[in-house]
């Protein structure tokens, strides 16, 4: 009892403290009226950082109060500040006595598109730190912020992570505005809505959610909005931060949000009713909700022919299974189910294993771990020494290990196939989870043989069924089965046959293609005949 | 709470993995892969099993150790016992590995043993065992002991059991005096009262002791070699006789198992003047009761090409072809008659006439069942109708004439 009351008291105390602090904050928020105070306060708050430029100015006619322009060098567009702000304040501003200087500045002097009035310090710092210029006026308890965001940024390049043969070549950059513009250029529709928020108590990172009103489901948009608002963290440095904080299930190796560098992919997903989460400072845009089958799709599937896309998707599913169970199947076959492979093959494998001193599991682990080391080294190594890795790797894994009798050639083949299969998975996020699950399957196979593998697959299937992405079951549209959407899963029907948008993801506005869109040759042979007739006449 | 659950799950999972400890795991290097099993009986009346064990290192074109031709591809061990299971277990005293029967594709049964006792007693343990394949092929060691057949090394197919199986399969496909019978088929025929077992024999030419050595396989013409023998006829599971040559081929036709063969017919006074290459064959057997006696009607349809013509004939002429077809029909009919006669003599219904009767007239079959082989089958009259058809005459129509 006493403990309980104590804890309640503590809570009360904390609450009081918090209230007091808030009041204090509010007091400090109001902007000072004296220009010198304002400048001093800014200097004090920013620790006199040298990249914060404070420029005191006099209006053109020398009358009126002093004005100061404050901006952060490097993240703002200095040309715009010079030409449209400082220049016009110095040269154009005249002060009629009838109106306050502040309004004049707002309406007549500042020659920039986006100008806001700010009344408290918090917003002032937000604007300042995002690259906007602040105009302070002596005697006014408010400030103007002019949008002069700019600074150095990477140009639009081809994305490095999702390369296609056919398809647009532009990729997202680190700049959020560039990124949203790339999407807007593709969907020229006022219903493409963009909401902005700042997340991260220290970094104040710009995070935007983008969706098409009327196609995206309102509940899902609301859910995304709420989850983003819920985030309390000091920093957001990459969209991965957001992903980890808003995903449905934390304990899983499978990604429940899709991330991509390709604007066309984001546009395609927005058109299916999904929501894009764009984070400033990273080219990776999150897409929610994501379903399992999405990770086996590539944008190119939609640009190429349907039959080929379907075949490729079958291949990718196969690849996924290979990358999960190939080493496990090797272990199971060589230690439990020798009867399952043809005699000749068994004899060949047995001959290779004859010299190997380890049981199959250890052999497989050695090779898999060696490969993982190589792969990790290959990614982290500086480019100049990168080629050394592949040579050493090829020698160690490919030949020396076999000749030394540590592993059998069959194992090398298995590891190689697994590795290639893993690289061939189109979505990196799923490839990486397959990489991890593989080891689980290897242990299951070493313990129970194929029985263990099947158990593992069942557990995996149950796990996948239990996953949700923003409330949408992960295996949609296979489980729950939605026949109308099966046309874009393992099989990819031609666009004219995919009439419906994903049922659980998009809102009721679900028809995407008109009727009778199947292309066909013109009826009759009139065109051909007329040409032939013409040819005949020409001969005469 | 969730973490607790998760930990609990993790502990259980860990226990399952660690406590079960690779249950029934068998490493490849601990297995003796038995390719063939030969079964005989010795003078004391005990079973002798001869296991042909694959030496993996010597079979597969070795990467390690440079070439695998130093040792023999197979090693043979024998075990003796009062039962098959006993002899197999007892053989472990001579072997450093576990006998692994899942890849045993061949069972060789000694002729003496097959004559002496019903082979169903031998097949029972093999069929009962989970490892043993029911698709293993059964042959009878004709004129020798099963151990001799198992011991001889062969040249082209390094593993002798493979050689035997493949020989049987290909001769069945191209010549048709032999049939391949696997364990499942054999057991089916053994338990069926309306059909008796017929199995191919395998023979050894030359000396066993020479055949055991690697030198045997290093000759272009091995002094000891294995070849497909005659067709063994069984009655009540015991071997009663052998049929071979045209009689055997007639039996295979009657069993509707002939895939291809070559028939020579007499033409314009010359024996074997025209050779008919049979490519397709279908036999229908119907058994009906007529005046209280079974009457068998056999319809054979054959299709084939002219493979050889050594007499000048106008093969463009359809009438000639029709006449040749008539000759072929006569020839096939003769072979079938011979086969029937032999089977009747042995009082063994290897053709399954009993089953056919069972299908067409179950009432009558019930009465005759017990004495079918001994009384009714030998008495049964057969009407044989053969319809041969020449599909093609080959790339040449009229045989060329040598100007003398």
Count of discrete alpha- or pi-helical segments spanning 4 or more residues of chain A: 18
Regarding quaternary structure, what we see is heterodimer
Which series of helices and strands of chain B comes N to C? HEEHEHEEHHEHHEHEHEEHEEEHHHHE
The total number of structural domains of chain A is 3
Kindly report how far apart the N and C termini of chain A lie. 114 Å
Low-confidence stretches of chain A: none
- The computed structural class of chain B is alpha/beta
Largest sheet of chain A: 5 strands, antiparallel
Largest interface pair: A-B, 31 and 34 residues
Q: Span between N and C termini of chain B?
A: 106 Å
Cross-sheet strand order for the largest sheet of chain A: 1-2-4-5-3
Helix/strand structural class of chain A: alpha+beta
- Shape annotation of chain B: globular
Helix fraction bin of chain B: 25-40%
The count of β-strands of chain B is: 14
The fraction of residues assigned to DSSP E strands of chain A is 5-15%
State the low-pLDDT regions of chain B, or none: 62-68
Write the layout of secondary structure elements.
The complex is a heterodimer of chains A (540) and B (404).
Chain A: H1 2-29, H2 35-45, E1 52-57, E2 67-72, H3 78-92, H4 101-109, E3 115-118, H5 121-129, E4 133-137, E5 143-146, H6 176-186, E6 192-199, E7 205-212, H7 218-230, H8 239-246, E8 258-260, H9 263-271, E9 275-279, E10 285-288, H10 299-303, H11 306-335, H12 343-353, H13 360-380, H14 383-403, H15 409-424, H16 428-448, H17 450-466, E11 468-469, E12 472-473, H18 526-539
Antiparallel strand pairs in A: 1-2, 2-4, 3-5, 4-5, 6-7, 7-9, 8-10, 9-10, 11-12
Helix pairs in contact in A: 6-9, 11-13, 11-15, 11-16, 13-14, 13-15, 13-16, 16-17
Chain B: H1 2-20, E1 31-41, E2 47-54, H2 56-59, E3 74-81, H3 84-90, E4 98-100, E5 106-110, H4 111-116, H5 120-128, E6 137-141, H6 146-151, H7 160-174, E7 181-182, H8 183-191, E8 198-205, H9 208-211, E9 225-235, E10 238-243, H10 245-254, E11 261-267, E12 270-290, E13 293-309, H11 318-346, H12 353-360, H13 362-368, H14 372-379, E14 381-392
Parallel strand pairs in B: 1-4, 1-5, 5-6, 6-8, 13-14
Antiparallel strand pairs in B: 1-2, 2-3, 6-7, 8-9, 9-10, 11-12, 12-13
Helix pairs in contact in B: 10-11, 11-14, 12-13
């Amino acid at each position: 009892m006493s403990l309980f009351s104590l804890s309640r008291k503590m809570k009360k105390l904390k609450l009081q403290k918090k209230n007091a602090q808030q009041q204090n904050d509010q007091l400090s928020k109001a902007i000072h009226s004296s220009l010198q105070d304002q400048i001093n306060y800014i200097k004090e708050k920013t620790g006199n950082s040298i990249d914060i430029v404070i420029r005191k100015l006099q209006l053109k006619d020398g009358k009126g109060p002093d004005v100061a322009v404050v901006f952060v060098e490097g993240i703002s567009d200095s040309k715009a500040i010079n030409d449209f702000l400082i220049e016009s304040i110095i040269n154009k501003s005249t002060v009629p006595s009838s109106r306050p200087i502040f309004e004049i500045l707002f309406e007549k002097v500042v020659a920039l598109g986006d100008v806001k009035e700010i009344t408290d310090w918090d917003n002032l710092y937000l604007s300042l730190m995002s690259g906007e210029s602040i105009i302070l006026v002596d005697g006014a308890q408010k400030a103007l912020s002019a949008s002069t965001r700019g600074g150095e940024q990477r140009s639009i390049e081809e994305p490095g992570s999702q390369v296609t043969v056919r398809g647009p070549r532009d990729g997202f950059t680190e700049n959020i505005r560039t990124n949203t513009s790339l999407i807007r250029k593709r969907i020229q529709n006022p219903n493409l809505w963009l909401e902005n928020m700042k997340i991260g108590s220290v970094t104040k990172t710009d995070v935007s959610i983008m969706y098409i009103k009327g196609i995206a489901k309102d509940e899902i948009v609301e859910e995304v909005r709420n989850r983003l608002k819920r985030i309390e963290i000091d920093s957001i440095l990459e969209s991965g931060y957001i992903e980890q904080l808003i995903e449905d299930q934390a304990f899983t190796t499978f990604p429940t949000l899709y991330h991509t560098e390709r604007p066309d992919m984001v546009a395609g997903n927005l058109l299916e009713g999904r929501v894009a989460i764009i984070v400033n400072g990273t080219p990776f845009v999150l897409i929610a909700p994501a379903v399992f089958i999405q990770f086996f799709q590539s944008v190119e599937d939609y640009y190429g022919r349907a039959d080929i896309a379907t075949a490729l998707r079958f291949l990718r599913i196969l690849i996924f299974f290979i990358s999960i169970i190939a080493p496990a199947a090797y272990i199971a076959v060589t230690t439990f189910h020798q009867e399952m492979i043809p005699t000749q093959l068994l004899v060949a494998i047995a001959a290779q294993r004859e010299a190997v001193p380890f049981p199959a599991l250890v052999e497989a682990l050695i090779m898999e771990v060696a490969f993982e080391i190589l792969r990790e080294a290959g990614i982290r190594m500086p480019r100049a020494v990168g080629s050394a890795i592949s040579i050493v790797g090829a020698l160690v894994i490919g030949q020396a290990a076999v000749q030394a009798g540590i592993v059998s050639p069959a194992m090398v083949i298995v590891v190689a196939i697994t590795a290639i299969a893993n690289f061939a998975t189109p979505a990196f996020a799923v490839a990486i989870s397959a990489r991890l699950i593989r080891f689980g399957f290897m242990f299951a196979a070493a313990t129970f043989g194929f029985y263990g593998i099947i158990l593992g697959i069942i557990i995996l299937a149950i796990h996948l069924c239990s996953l949700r992405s923003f409330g949408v079951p992960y295996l949609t549209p296979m489980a729950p089965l939605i026949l109308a959407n099966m046309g874009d899963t393992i099989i990819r029907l031609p666009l004219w046959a995919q009439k419906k948008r994903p049922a659980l993801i998009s809102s009721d506005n679900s028809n995407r293609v008109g009727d009778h869109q199947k292309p066909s040759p013109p009826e009759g042979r009139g065109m051909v005949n007329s040409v032939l007739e013409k040819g005949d006449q020409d001969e005469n | 709470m969730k973490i607790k659950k998760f930990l609990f799950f993790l502990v259980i999972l860990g226990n399952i993995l660690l406590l079960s400890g690779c249950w029934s795991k068998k490493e490849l290097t601990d297995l003796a892969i038995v390719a063939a099993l030969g079964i005989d009986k010795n003078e004391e009346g005990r079973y002798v099993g001869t296991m042909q064990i694959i030496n993996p290192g010597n079979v597969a074109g070795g990467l390690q150790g440079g070439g695998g031709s130093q040792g023999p591809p197979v090693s043979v061990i024998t075990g003796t016992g009062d039962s098959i299971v006993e002899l197999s277990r007892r053989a472990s005293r001579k072997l450093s590995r576990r006998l692994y029967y899942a890849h045993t594709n061949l069972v060789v049964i000694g002729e003496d043993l097959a004559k002496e006792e019903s082979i169903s007693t031998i097949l029972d343990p093999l069929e009962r065992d989970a490892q043993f394949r029911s698709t293993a092929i059964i042959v009878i060691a004709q004129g020798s002991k099963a151990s001799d057949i198992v011991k001889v090394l062969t040249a082209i197919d390094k593993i002798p059991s493979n050689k035997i199986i493949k020989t049987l399969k290909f001769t069945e496909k191209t010549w048709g005096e032999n049939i391949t019978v696997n364990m499942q088929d054999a057991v089916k025929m053994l338990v069926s009262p309306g059909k008796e077992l017929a199995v191919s024999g395998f023979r050894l030419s030359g000396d066993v002791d020479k055949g055991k050595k690697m030198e045997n396989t290093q000759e272009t013409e091995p002094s000891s070699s294995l070849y497909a023998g005659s067709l063994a006829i069984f009655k009540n599971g015991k071997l009663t006789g052998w049929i071979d040559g045209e009689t055997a081929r007639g039996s295979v036709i009657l069993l509707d198992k002939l895939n291809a063969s070559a028939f020579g017919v007499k033409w314009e006074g010359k024996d074997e003047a025209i050779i008919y290459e049979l490519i397709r064959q279908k036999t229908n057997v119907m058994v009906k009761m007529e005046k209280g006696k079974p009457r068998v009607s056999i319809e054979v349809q054959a299709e084939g090409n002219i493979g050889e013509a050594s007499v000048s004939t106008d093969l463009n002429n359809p009438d000639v072809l029709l006449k040749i077809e008539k000759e072929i029909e006569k020839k096939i009919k003769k072979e079938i008659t011979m086969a029937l006669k032999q089977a009747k003599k042995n009082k063994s219904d290897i053709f399954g006439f009993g089953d056919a009767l069972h299908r067409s007239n179950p009432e009558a079959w019930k009465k005759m069942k017990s004495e079918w082989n001994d009384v009714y089958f030998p008495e049964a009259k057969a009407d044989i109708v053969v319809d041969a058809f020449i599909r093609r005459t080959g790339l040449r129509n009229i045989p060329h004439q040598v100007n003398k």
